[in-house]
Specification:
34% helix; 5 domains; 26 helices; 7-stranded antiparallel sheet; Jelly Rolls
């Protein structure tokens, strides 16, 4: 009995030990590599600098090095501007990155001395300077724009090996543009804009920030002694004659200028009024700023039921630093006043600001950012101070220029504060989610005020900031703008959470919605559009009438527009002919349909009228259709037009599956039949044409192309100490365990598009979707099986969500790494400004090959442009497609549509050279180009639509139901082959065996 009890005691003791060990194991941090007690975050931390080169190692909050904070540091250190110092550095004084013969030339832009001709073959040039006195300086550059692209010239500035602040990493150098000739009229009497051409001339400009946030040129601190000034290439070629380091030009106030007028005996002129039409601008620094149309009968010339380009500005003239210049003559020297007829009904009550310069110089401080208040009608406004006193300008007899430049003015402080608050709020939300998850239990007390140090203090500071922002915005606005309501909602939410921290998890979604509202407001407040009908240079005593349209004039204009609606097709963009022509001298016309917005169609039509028709004599009739009306499946406009025998010549914006589907039905033309097709096809990545190939023919040209890259949060990756994975193996071993340990997830595209989700694994393992003859599925190979297992393992074993909103979870930090597309890139750029500088992209993970290279093969479905088989003008239609997909046309169109609609409409052209001309971040473009090397799309075959369906069914069976991978895949292959065979029999490719 004693032995039995002793045995039982020993067994009980062993059981207790085992239970204790199990409990310790359950609650201990997950570790691996036989390093007990070391958290994954530290165990997987990458110490090797080369291995972390993609991590932006040494990441710092970009807000800390913003110009606004550097200015505060200048003030704190007591730095002041020096007086009367100017140092000129010539092109002969430089050294370059290649240590080669310096690219100096004579005769550029008429210069008879050596100038630096800087193309992209040199990464940088630098100058040695000797500063005579410590203090603040401005830097000027005398430059000449090279090349034919409309894109902005950009360089990065480094002083003594360091970028002094963030804004110096993206210094803009603007080109000048003008109208080419007079306007023309289309066949219904509407006026059409002339083509924009570049003005080639030397310019001397100070270095400024690219967003127009600051009214004054950038200030740089130099200590006394020798320094190195380096410019790094970012984009676009330029010639440089001189670099000038000059004392900061502190502008006097108008009171001082007025006293100077009196001392010099300047007199007010008594006559000589001049009127300068806004649309008759001499130059613009952005080719997208053009003549615009306004139907108000008070605007000259009156529209009268037609389109008259009777003003300039509007939504195209909304970005910081965009400037317009006019020329005018004054009959005698003296003092004049300036009067503008303007309309500013944008921004829901917010004002806009313009810097006003005469002969290239801002005359006094009040003109650095002159305020144009919100008012929902045209008005005539003298330039006055807040007390209503008119500003006077001294002008010598003869020709002068007046330049207006969009600046943020007093809004700059509000914008900087909003950016700081959005950043802080984003950090707080991330801290909360790290504890509660994205779907917290509303009844559980997480004690966030205790577990997150300083959370309540942060909320109090944010609440106070919202209150201050409400006061500042209200003070400068004509009425209460919508953004004030966003501030107020967020303030109320924060105040409630401060009083009762228990409700924070319950109100988390509300807080995230308010964050989105704050970031959208941050975008809206930076838009600075202004319409200008004309401006007057008037004697100071002239009586200025604020002319407005009468009720009868408005009724007449409304009636004319009403009558026009009966005969004018608003979905059609009409033809153009010269106003001096008696007849339309075009050889023939083609019909082009486009399934995009009206703005896209108008820009394409305008470009065709400016370039294509004059060069070829081929007219273009363009019709705009809703999205989804350009496919081969279902009942839509394109299929109905084909069935009825009234198909267009060209269709743009066609989905990637339709060209081959139409070719199968003999409805789309084989473009490979044209003699110069091979030359044209070189504009695109070879893999882009794969979906358009069918039976030795190619039935479309790509317009746009998508791509897949790896998105990552720089701040979180740095905090976790992990490397951005180059291969899937690195992802599985080094990244996913760390993310899981910290309550985070990786994102991979949803199973809803199963084929495109499987594609990278399939191609990287050397497998294919179909056999070489495209007659059967090729998923029955060992390589395909391996790919399918690895793909489903992501979701089944590594528990990656089958479906998730990557954009939202990336913003909150729940998914700091994931695979995304072009749309993800644009959304993060446009709708997540609080993440500026905190995220980056890297090439898609791949499989390391025997030679050490990494296979990153992936696709990205392109949109298509096709020629219809019914067309009797196939040669003309082909000429149009060649013009439309050319590098110059795609580059200019991308610039125009982005300026008109915004960065959210950035054109991801399939023309690889034109794609490079878009204003991408240099590092991001390098990632795109690396991923291009591995671009390959899935073929479109007869019955291929079943492939995606059955791959999805197989994956769902494996992930959700636990079905064996081989059984699921074999069933899918059988069903795919059956449908492919049925379609091949239906269309006579093979004969049915009886």
């Amino acid at each position: 009995m004693v032995r039995c009890n002793a045995k039982r005691s020993i067994i009980a003791f062993i059981c207790k030990c085992l239970c204790l060990a199990l409990i310790i194991t359950m609650f201990s941090p997950i570790t691996s590599n036989a390093q007990p007690g070391i958290p994954l975050k530290d165990k997987n931390k990458v110490e090797d600098e080369d291995a972390r080169k993609n991590n932006d190692q040494g990441y710092v909050n970009p807000r800390e090095y913003s110009y606004v904070n550097v200015l505060k540091q200048y003030e704190k250190e007591g730095y002041e501007s020096v007086e009367e110092v100017e140092i000129s550095l010539n092109a002969d004084d430089i050294s370059n990155s290649n240590a080669n013969l310096l690219p100096l030339e004579v005769g550029i832009g008429g210069k008879q001395n050596n100038v630096l001709v800087w193309k992209n073959s040199d990464d940088w040039f630098e100058w040695q300077i000797d500063i005579p006195e410590s203090g603040l300086y401005n830097i000027y550059v005398e430059y000449y724009a090279l090349g034919e692209s409309s894109n902005l010239i950009q360089r990065e500035l480094m002083i003594d090996g360091n970028v002094p602040f963030n804004e110096a990493s993206n210094i803009p150098f603007y080109k000048l543009w003008e109208d080419e000739g007079k306007t023309t009229f289309n066949n219904v009497g509407d006026e059409v804009r002339p083509k924009q051409v570049e003005i080639k001339e030397w310019q001397v400009k100070p270095l400024i920030d690219v967003s127009g946030m600051y009214s004054q040129p950038l200030k740089f601190y130099f200590s006394e002694g020798k320094h190195t000034l380096r410019f790094n290439y970012v984009q676009q070629p330029m010639a440089i004659d001189k670099i000038i380091i000059r004392s900061v030009d502190d502008l006097p106030e108008y009171a001082d200028i007025s006293n100077e007028y009196k001392q010099k005996g300047y007199k007010k002129v008594s006559k000589g009024a001049m009127r300068i039409e806004g649309e008759a601008a001499y130059s613009k620094n952005d080719p997208t700023i053009r003549r615009e149309y306004d139907g108000d009968p008070s605007v000259y010339p009156s529209a009268g039921g037609k389109i008259r380009l009777n003003m300039i500005g509007g939504w195209r003239w909304r970005k910081g630093n965009q400037e317009v210049t006019w020329k005018f003559d004054v009959p005698e020297s003296g003092l004049y006043k300036l009067v503008f007829r303007v309309a500013q009904w944008y921004g829901d009550g917010l004002p806009v600001y313009r810097q006003i310069a005469i002969d290239g110089k801002v005359p006094f401080k009040e003109m650095e950012a002159y305020k144009f208040s919100y008012q929902h009608e045209w008005r005539t406004e003298e330039l006055k101070d807040e007390e209503g006193n008119t500003y006077l300008f001294y002008l010598e007899e003869g020709e002068h220029t007046l330049t207006m430049t969009a600046k943020m003015g007093p809004l700059a402080k509000i914008i900087n504060d909003m950016e700081e608050d959005a950043w802080t709020l984003s950090e707080s939300i991330r801290d909360i989610i790290m504890i509660t998850g994205s779907e917290p239990d509303s009844n559980f007390d997480y004690e966030l005020d205790k577990k997150i140090p300083g959370l309540i203090d942060t909320f109090k500071e944010l609440s106070n900031n919202m209150g201050r922002s409400i006061e500042e915005v209200t003070a400068i606005s004509a009425r209460r703008p919508m953004i004030v309501n966003n501030f107020a909602v967020l303030k109320d939410q924060l105040d409630e959470m401060i009083k009762d921290p228990f409700i924070i998890p319950r109100r988390l979604n509300d807080l995230m919605s308010s964050q989105s509202g704050l970031t959208l407001s941050l975008q809206d407040i930076q838009n600075q559009p202004l319409n200008i009908d004309y401006f007057l240079v008037e004697p100071p005593n002239a009586n200025i009438k604020n002319y407005k349209a009468s009720v009868l004039q408005k009724m007449k204009a409304t009636w004319q527009n009403f009558l026009a609606s009966f005969y004018k097709d608003y979905d059609r963009i009409d033809n153009v002919y010269s106003v001096t022509d008696d007849t339309n001298n075009q050889k023939r016309s083609i019909d082009v349909w486009i399934a995009r917005g009206k703005e896209w169609g108008e820009v394409i039509k305008q470009k065709a009228d400016e370039d294509f028709t004059p060069e070829t004599g081929i007219g273009v009739n363009m019709n705009i259709l809703p999205a989804g009306q350009m496919g081969a499946t279902g009942v839509n406009a394109l299929t109905l037009s084909i069935v009825s025998g009234k198909a267009p010549d060209v269709a743009l914006g066609v989905d990637p599956l339709s060209p081959v589907e139409l070719a199968i039905r003999d409805a789309s033309a084989n473009l490979a039949q044209f003699d110069d097709f091979n030359d044209v096809s070189k504009r695109f990545l070879p893999g882009v044409l794969v979906p358009f190939e069918y039976r030795n023919g190619i039935y479309a040209l790509p317009e746009t192309m998508d791509f897949n890259v790896l998105f990552y949060r720089k701040d979180i990756v740095d905090e976790l100490g992990i490397a951005v994975p180059d291969t899937w193996e690195e992802l599985y071993k080094s990244v996913l365990p760390v993310l899981n340990q910290n309550g985070m997830q990786f994102y991979y595209p949803s199973l809803l598009a199963a084929s495109s989700s499987l594609l990278p694994f399939l191609y990287q393992n050397g497998a294919e979707f179909y056999t070489d003859d495209n007659m059967r599925s090729a998923l029955d190979t060992s390589e395909a099986y391996k790919s399918f297992v690895e793909w489903t393992k992501l979701f089944k074993v590594y528990q990656i969500p089958v479906q998730a909103n990557f954009f939202n979870r990336f913003r909150t930090g729940e998914m700091p790494i994931g695979v995304g597309s072009y749309n993800t890139y644009i959304m993060l750029t446009v709708a997540a400004p609080e993440l500026y500088g905190r995220w980056g992209i890297a090439p898609l993970p791949g499989i390391r090959m025997e030679d050490g290279s990494i296979d990153r093969t992936a696709g990205g479905a392109p949109s298509a442009a096709i020629v219809l088989n019914q067309s009797e003008n196939k040669e003309e239609a082909w000429q149009f497609l060649k013009w439309w997909t050319s590098t110059d046309t795609q580059s200019q169109f991308g610039s125009d549509i982005e300026s008109l609609v915004g960065i959210e409409a950035r054109w991801n052209t399939a023309n690889s050279e034109a794609f490079k001309n878009i204003a991408w971040d240099k590092k991001d473009l390098a990632v795109f180009e690396e991923q291009w090397k591995w671009y390959k799309e899935q073929p479109v075959v007869l019955g291929g639509y079943f492939t995606d369906r059955h791959i999805k069914n197989a994956a769902t069976s494996v992930i959700m139901s636990g079905m064996n991978e081989r059984d699921a895949l074999e069933k899918a292959i059988k069903d795919i082959n059956k449908e492919m065979r049925n379609k091949q029999i239906e269309y006579g490719i093979i004969e049915e065996k009886r």
